[in-house]
Every structure is written in structure tokens, then in C-alpha cells.
């Protein structure tokens, strides 16, 4: 299947996403901040990055901007609790290729992720 990088500062969120994705046959690596997400995405061979937006230090928006400006072609999908009116549009305008809000529906999460992988 696919190799996915999860960047999220919340260990519980990383655990759930990793469990669901690995159960669906994907390989998952995880980091807990934007700095590590940038480093891993540049050095790894990922098919998708799931990027939390609100992380301490470098947030997901800045990490996404850095990756895109460096020519990173990996799809970056925001996996975020930012779900107020206008947040989705702001996140997509910042360079994310997709958006999944937290808390996500367990039954549809893997399908949503796989849509972004198959569209790349």
C-alpha cells in the first residue's frame, strides 16, 4: 500500500490514525512537530503527509509552506481540529492539498485518506 507520514503533537491522535491506517495495510511513520515533519518529508519516500495544523513550535501551515516552497510534490492533507467557518479555505490556500477535520469519523477516515493518495 502507501507510506504515510503523520505529523501531530497529540500522541493519542497519532496512535488512532496510525492504528487505522496500518490496519488498512499502509506503512506509517509519525512525528510530533512541524520541524520534524519538514525534515522527514524531505528525506523520506512518502505517498502522503497528514499534517496537524496547530502544533507548538512550527505549526502545520508553516511546515506546509516550507515543503511546498522546496518543491515537495507529496500531497499534504491537513488533519486538524480547526473547523470554524473559513478555516478549511484558509488551510487550502496556505498550500495543503486536502482537509480532514478532527474528530474524524472512524468509518470514513481511511477512505478519505486513500482518496488523496489515489488522486496524486
What does this structure look like?
The protein is of the alpha/beta class. It has a single domain (3-118), classed as Rossmann fold, CATH 3.40.50. The chain is built from 5 helices and 5 strands, in the order βαβαβαβαβα. The chain has a 5-stranded parallel beta sheet with strand order 2-1-3-4-5, with helices on both faces. The mean pLDDT is 93.
Sum up the structure in keywords:
120 residues; 5 helices; five-stranded parallel sheet; Rossmann fold; 44% helix; alpha/beta; 5 strands
Indicate the topology:
Layout: E1 3-7, H1 11-23, E2 27-31, H2 34-43, E3 48-51, H3 60-69, E4 76-80, H4 87-93, E5 98-101, H5 106-118
Parallel strand pairs: 1-2, 1-3, 3-4, 4-5
Helix pairs in contact: 2-3
Strand percentage lies at 15-25%
Secondary-structure-derived class: alpha/beta
Give the number of domains.
Answer: 1
Oligomer: single chain
Average pLDDT confidence is: 93
Low-pLDDT segments: none
Number of helices: 5
CATH homologous superfamily label: Response regulator
**Rg, Å, rounded:** 13 Å
Amino acid at each position: 500500500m502507501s507510506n504515510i507520514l503523520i505529523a501531530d503533537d497529540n500522541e493519542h491522535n497519532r496512535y488512532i490514525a496510525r492504528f487505522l491506517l496500518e490496519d488498512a495495510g499502509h506503512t506509517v511513520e509519525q512525528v510530533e512537530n512541524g520541524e520534524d515533519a519538514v525534515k522527514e518529508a524531505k528525506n523520506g519516500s512518502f505517498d502522503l503527509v497528514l499534517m496537524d495544523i496547530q502544533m507548538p513550535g512550527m505549526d502545520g501551515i508553516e511546515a506546509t509552506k516550507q515543503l511546498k516552497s522546496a518543491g515537495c510534490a507529496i500531497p499534504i492533507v491537513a488533519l486538524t481540529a480547526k473547523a470554524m467557518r473559513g478555516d478549511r479555505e484558509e488551510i487550502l490556500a496556505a498550500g495543503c492539498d486536502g482537509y480532514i477535520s478532527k474528530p474524524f469519523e472512524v468509518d470514513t477516515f481511511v477512505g478519505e485518506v486513500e482518496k488523496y493518495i489515489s488522486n496524486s
